Amino acid sequence: MCKAAFDHLRTWRKYNTLSKKEKFIDLKEVIRKKSPGLAKFMPWFALNYLRRIVHEDDVNDFIDRHGHQMGIEFVYAIMDEFGVNLKVIGEEKIPKSGRYLMASNHPLGGIDGIAFMSAISRVRKDFIFPVNDILLSLDNMKEFFIPINKHGSNAENVRMFNETFASDKLLLYFPAGLVSRKKNGLIRDLEWKKTIITKSKQHKRDIIPVYMDGRNSNWFYNLANFRNKFKIKANLEMLYLVDETYKQFDKTMHIIIGDPIPWESFDRSKSDLEWAAMVRDKVYELKKEHNL
Fold first, then answer.
1. 214 and 77 fall within a common domain
2. What single string gives the DSSP state of each residue in the chain?
């Protein structure tokens, strides 16, 4: 859907009172469950502002229209909604079978993950994507998701995480765990976690580097840099990721698939963290090789 058509639909929905649709996402209720005290004293204008930047109405409208679609069909519906023109370079390198881990940079924080799944589905659909708690709540795509194992705090999550790595499923992964940031004029991922190396060696999975282009707004990067400058721990810029996603209409997105890196190459000459940094560098080399 083009941006102009989307804006027209949003305006029509705002003023059309003939139909009351089910509210699938209610931010006020989410806040009430997470923090009853905050919900009780939050000013109406603050709640309305949060509703606007998380696009509560837009998300609810999309789910109302496409909630019946499950799995890869829901992924395709999101791609169609945003009018993403996806160009995959090296599609022939997507393995038709085998226990690989495809590790990508994380430039956008929303539509990039959807595009990643859409691209890989052209060849195979037996993939699994470790994601955060918010995405786990999306029943329409739960067949593709497992929870990220943070700090090993949840025994069930640890079990599921390890079983997935031991399985024959193709793994898609954002090793940074956070959206790319802008530093010294360059947009790059933060440090990649060593998990991809540790687990790939343990389960004998070759790693395929993947590069995705795309960028968020200067507002997002400036807010992140402001927060870091003043040592504010709260990840304020993450509040705007949905809003950033809704700025991605009608964009062309390139995804570059690299050559597999054998798991045996991750020897003791480097630490697992250093090997993870090397794989990240390989990802950005793909960008240079294809002049993106």
1. yes
2. --HHHHHHHHHHHHH--S-----S--HHHHHHHH-HHHHHH--HHHHHHHHHHTTHHHHHHHHHHHTT--THHHHHHHHHHHT-EEEEETGGGS-SSS--EEEE--SSSSHHHHHHHHHHTTT---EEEEE-HHHHT-GGGGGGEEE---TT--HHHHHHHHHHHHSSSEEEE-TT-S--EEETTEEE--PPPTHHHHHHHHHT--EEEEEE-----HHHHHHHHHHHHTT--S-GGGGGHHHHHTT-TT-EEEEEE---B-GGG--TTS-HHHHHHHHHHHHHHHHHHTT-
Q: Are residues 182 and 250 in the same domain?
A: yes
- Mind listing the pLDDT tens digit for each residue in 180-227? 999 999 999 999 999 999 999 999 999 999 999 999 999 999 999 999
The amino acid at 122: R
Residue range 142-171, pLDDT digits in tens: 999 999 866 556 888 889 999 999 999 999
Q: Assess whether 58 and 102 both reside in one domain.
A: no
Determine the structural domain holding residue 17 and report its residue range. Answer: 1-66
Q: Are residues 40 and 90 in the same domain?
A: no
| 229 and 160 co-located in one domain | yes
- List the CATH number of the domain containing 240: 3.40.1130.10
Same domain as 201, residue 228: yes
> Of 18, 35, 66, which closes a domain?
66
Of the candidates 94, 98, 104, 273, the one whose C-alpha atom is nearest the C-alpha of residue 203 is: 98
